[in-house]
Specification:
heterodimer; A: about 260 residues; mainly alpha; about 0% strand; globular; B: about 260 residues
Chain lengths: ~260, ~260
């Protein structure tokens, strides 16, 4: 089982490693948006004595640039090909394999995220560090917490996209659902601005009541040392709860499975 | 001829009425969210880049309106990538119509109408509440600026997708200039700094989309030191951008070698 997991993760890694031009194009785009968002947030911070919800300038710069890097690692904008395989009926072949498709997809996605860490995450961070003063964590343990937090963020993001993909068993066409997901996960995860800028009730709800904050805001707050292990606990809760939901929903989906094309 | 293609496309896309309605509403909500982001950041500082509420609103809605119109008319040019990769572009070249207009008509996405209408309405509201000393020149410019902005964004859409003739995998890179340009022009240029501002505002010209026209409409001199007459020049830069994009497109089509499959 374990060796199969590694093989799947390795396959995910290698598959994305072949898209070299797309990786370069993606890094370029992430960097441009890094400049845009960073300048805007820093200008807002400079325009107010109170600061941006307690973030210092370097913390904001780190927030933006690491956030741009994590975007490709968590990859919440790209749907899994699960829905296509459900629509075409190929999913039946996946269900016959000795490993549950949930775990196959999870390990492949972790491999993909690993490649993204080395390229899409690292490169914008270097660009950001050259152009802006970034926040360096004061404690060594922060790096460890951040590393764990990223892995949990990838798992949470994966489980959400898997759930979106599973709706194809009922809807066949998931465009509507994935549009809602992209919309909610973008604003709810703190991609455009830190959630702390929102009214208290709204940011508390997004943190506790939804998995979105676990995608970006959580890991980023750990890195700029505005939060610690309690964020990891929250992420762990969402990762376990969502994977469990994936299992339950998948079991129901399989129970009603109609194989297209006989 | 293009009318026929367009009508057929609109008919086919509105066939699944529910799905179409959901997509229109979805894109309007997402667009509204962009504006909400500006509002959230504005409320933190009470001003953005030295500009007050009505000025920021005018600038942001002008940029959003111009982008939404450009996206509606030529945003689907990025489908060119698939045409080049699959060799389907051959079929466009075979017909006795302009390849570019065919590409745009065949991929026309009526769901984007919602966003364009929304952008236009918000722009008119912003014009109404902004502190503008109306005269003939300003009235003409208030109408001309979003048109010029749309032509300007449209040129970037066309130029960005034309890159696919040489580099099929370039997709995301064009986003840096189309969606990135939209983000840039949604805020006053004074918020940016260094070579990045020089490149986006002056060299690429995104300062002409909303920032300079807004200054002209509300009658403020540019804090960054651009001469006053330059604030009125966005139609000129739009025409230059369109001419360059057209030239680039022609070069691209000449360079096109079919996949042969």
């Amino acid at each position: 089982m374990l060796s199969a997991s590694w093989a799947l993760a390795g396959a995910g890694f290698r598959r994305y490693a072949t898209y070299r031009q797309a990786t370069v194009a993606g890094i370029f785009t992430n960097s441009v948006f890094g400049f845009l968002r960073c300048y805007v947030l820093l200008a807002v911070a400079a325009g107010t004595a109170a600061g941006v919800a307690g973030y210092t300038g370097p913390q904001l710069a780190t927030y933006v640039w690491v956030g741009q890097g994590m975007l490709a690692v968590v990859n919440s904008w790209t749907m899994l090909d699960l829905a296509d395989r459900v629509r075409s009926g190929d999913i039946t072949a996946d269900l016959l394999r000795p490993i549950d498709p949930l775990w196959t997809y999870l390990w492949t996605d972790l491999g993909r995220a690993g490649f993204a860490m080395l390229t899409r995450f690292a490169a914008p961070l270097v660009v950001g560090a050259l152009a802006f003063e970034l926040y360096a964590p004061a404690h060594a343990v922060t790096y460890v917490l951040f590393a764990v937090s990223i892995v949990l963020a990838v798992v949470v993001g994966f489980a959400c996209r898997y759930l979106v993909g599973l709706t194809a068993f009922w809807l066949l066409d998931i465009r509507g659902v994935s549009m809602i997901w992209v919309f909610l996960s973008g604003v709810g995860s703190g991609l455009y601005f830190p959630l702390a800028l929102l009214p208290d009730w709204l940011s508390t709800f997004l943190w506790i009541g939804t998995p979105f904050a676990s995608l970006l805001q959580g890991p980023l707050d750990i890195l700029v040392e505005r939060g610690g292990p309690e964020i990891l606990a929250l992420q762990l809760f969402w990762a376990v709860a969502l994977l469990w939901a994936c299992r339950v929903v998948q079991a129901r989906a399989v129970a009603k499975l109609v194989i297209q094309g006989g | 001829m293009y009318g026929h293609v367009l009508r057929a496309q609109i008919r086919s896309q509105t066939q699944y009425r529910m799905s179409f309605v959901v997509e229109v509403i979805g894109s309007v909500v997402i667009n509204g969210l962009d504006l909400a982001t500006v509002f959230v950041l504005f409320s933190v500082a009470g001003s953005l880049g030295g500009f007050g509420g009505t000025e920021v609103l005018l600038l942001t809605t002008l940029s959003a309106c111009a982008f939404a119109v450009a996206d509606l008319v030529v945003g689907n040019a990025d489908k060119l990538r698939d045409y080049v990769r699959t060799g389907l572009f051959d079929t466009l070249l075979l017909r006795p119509l302009s390849a570019l207009w065919q590409l745009l008509a065949v991929n026309f996405a009526p769901r984007r109408v919602g966003r364009a209408v929304q952008g236009l309405v918000l722009y008119v509201v912003a014009l109404a509440i902004a502190d503008i000393d109306w005269d003939l020149a300003r009235a003409v410019y208030a109408v001309g600026a979003p048109v010029a902005g749309a032509v300007f964004f449209g040129s970037f859409f066309i130029a960005g997708s034309t890159v696919a003739f040489w580099w099929v995998e370039s997709g995301e890179m064009a986003n840096a200039f189309t969606y990135g340009g939209k983000d840039f022009s949604a805020y006053p240029s004074t918020m940016y700094d260094g070579w990045f501002r020089t490149v986006f505002a002056s060299a690429l010209g995104f300062g002409f989309v909303a920032y300079l026209p807004t200054l002209a409409l509300v009658g403020r001199a540019d804090p960054l030191g651009a001469p006053d007459w330059l604030r009125w020049c966005s139609p000129v830069t739009a025409l230059i951008a369109a001419a360059l994009a057209a030239l680039f497109w022609r070069t691209g089509v000449r360079h096109y070698r079919s996949t042969g499959s």
